[in-house]
Amino acid sequence: MAQPAGTRASAQNSMLTALNPSSRLVCLLQMCYHNGVVYIADSNNHVIRAIDIATYVVSTYAGTPGVPGSADHATNRNSATFNLPYDVACDTSNGDLYVGA
Description:
β2 (37-42) and β3 (47-52) form a beta hairpin. The protein is mainly β. The protein starts with 7 loop residues before the first helix and ends with a strand. The strands form 2 sheets. The chain has a 4-stranded antiparallel β-sheet with strand order 1-2-3-4, with no helix packed on it. Strands 5-6 form a two-stranded antiparallel sheet. The protein has one helix at residues 8-19; strands at 28-34, 37-42, 47-52, 58-62, 87-91, 96-100. The chain is globular.
């Protein structure tokens, strides 16, 4: 259910949504940081988001927005699907990203 304009969630998303309308964040649970990018478990959208902290550009790093699933594709993040991901962890030694779903 969409929240009415002027709510806290609406205010938090207004700048990010203006930059990239398809990147509306719904339920943020955990995040991690690596190499200038913040990775976020966007649970209700079933995706992992990436925010470039230099440009504030929000992108879908893995998963398909609004499409739940459970396909683990370690070699191709574009094919991965998640069902309510709740955690992300960055391995700063090699750049791997771990997702709890």
